[in-house]
Amino acid sequence: MSMLNIFNVAGSAISAQSQRLNVVASNLANADTVAGPDGNAYKARQVTFQTQLMGEVGAAGVKVSTVSEDQTPGRRVHDPKHPSADADGYVTYSNVNAVEEMVNMISASRSYQNNVEVMNTAKTLLLKTLQMGQS
Amino acid sequence: MLNRLTDSLAFHGQALSLRAERQRLIASNIANADTPGYVARDMNFAQALKEATGSIQPARALTVSQAGHLAGSAGARIEPNLLYATPSQTNLDRNTVDMDRERANFVDNSVKVEATLRFINHDVRMMLDAIKGQ
């Protein structure tokens, strides 16, 4: 049944997209994190997708191959009264760009919806196949 | 007489399994819409169906060079000749999935799967009517 493999394909895409959404959520949650005692603020994370073969020819799922950290320097704000300020009076915030994260979130949620729709259609067609010859 | 009835059923059966294959291909394209470097694939349905029903020989038929070699029988198919979609708009991450085209293909293919299912149902009913002879 090659149609049953659609659930594996769309399922892998859904789980990859939800992991992307998860990363976006942690980035947004840490958008205003300041550097801890080690001096390193939170670094924005990003997932990289990779095609994953599903056994049959033509069935290609998705998996998250790596979660990488954005290495751009964090935002530095002059605030000498801040408890985490360094010797020059600068506080280092995380390097999360809220606008980029929102765009990423919308893209992930649309892709998620697309794959759910694919699953629903495949389910309807399979149910109709099961009733073949009965009506 | 009965094979005249079941011929049509066999044809639609082949068509249905090819449709399911194409549905899976399009689902894979949609799943990989955000994967860098993924190349969208599709199949030439008309040609695949002709090869599956044996009305034309597969493009890459088995070569028979020795006396003991088996010739591929009609309907024997090498994995479908999958084609690569040419992108209408190039993408920086070399992904060639065009979501509008994939969505249209997906709906088109699901409607045709349903049509094939109806054909099969109709064939079955016709055969039953013929057997009952009322």
Order of strands in the sheet with the most strands of chain B? Answer: 1-2
What is the count of helical runs of chain A?
Answer: 2
Give helix % range of chain A.
Answer: 40-55%
Strand order of the largest sheet of chain A: 1-2
Summing up helix and strand content along with how strands pair, one would put the structural category of chain A as: alpha+beta
Instruction: Specify the overall morphology of chain A.
Output: elongated
Fraction of residues in H or I helices of chain B: 40-55%
N- and C-termini, Cα separation of chain A: 22 Å
* SS-based class of chain B: mainly alpha
Main sheet properties of chain A: 2 strands, antiparallel
Q: How does the overall form of chain B come out from the CA principal axes?
A: flat
Describe the structure.
The complex is a heterodimer of chains A (135) and B (134). Helices cover 43% and strands 19% of the residues of chain A. A two-stranded antiparallel sheet of chain A has the order 1-2. Chain A has a two-stranded antiparallel sheet with strand order 3-4. Chain A starts with a helix and ends in a 5-residue tail after the last helix. Chain B is mainly α and 134 residues long. In chain B, α1 runs antiparallel to α2 and α1 packs antiparallel against α3. Chain B is flat. The mean pLDDT of chain B is 84. The interface between A and B is large, with 39 and 34 residues.
